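Box 3.1 A note on notation
Throughout this textbook, protein chains are presented in two layers. The first layer is the amino acid sequence; the second is a token string describing backbone geometry. Keep the layers aligned when reading.
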Amino acid sequence: MHNKATELYEKYENLYDLLCSIIKKSEQRVIAEPQDDLFSDNVNFFVKSYMINICSYLEAYLQDIAFEYHKSINEKIKSLKIPHNFIYWRLSKDIKDKDLKFEEANYPANKKEISDNLSANPYRTIKLYRLLGIDLTTEAEFNENKDLVNTVIIKRNNIIHHNDSAMDVSFSDLITNIEIFKKYMSAVKNAVITSSSIT
């Protein structure tokens, strides 16, 4: 899982670096002489679009790494060849004959199930990762950055659902947010790697 977690982090880090480069070029077009009218007349549109992308990348990363971790846990369970009925018996309060299966335990990863229970909101992220056996709050950089990430996510939600103008956000703010999001993603990666070495 170490390699997969690192690979996913690097994939999204590269996407953020590319987006950061685009944001810097956009800012240059606004302050250049003569100004690029497309950018200078539509700064808010571009800021909102970039903010939505920043949050979308984070959500996709969180879903991808959770999905891969879920798959790795299931592979370990399958390799142990534990009877499905044993786990069902030990975890169920009300055993139904129709749910008994004479086969090995297998809980394949379901990306929709993960995406339905996860968003970029740090508190929903904490909850879903706990179900996977990962305590994100043990990572200092996660705790240090979760409130700012949550603020950005709320702003993004207000843009999408309420057409918030985001006039208080600059191109420089977006670049700062990207750096914070990368630290936050790195903390998630570290928590996943730590948990995978325990299980």
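Residues 43-80 form the longest helix (38 residues). Residues 63 and 116 are 10 Å apart (CA to CA).
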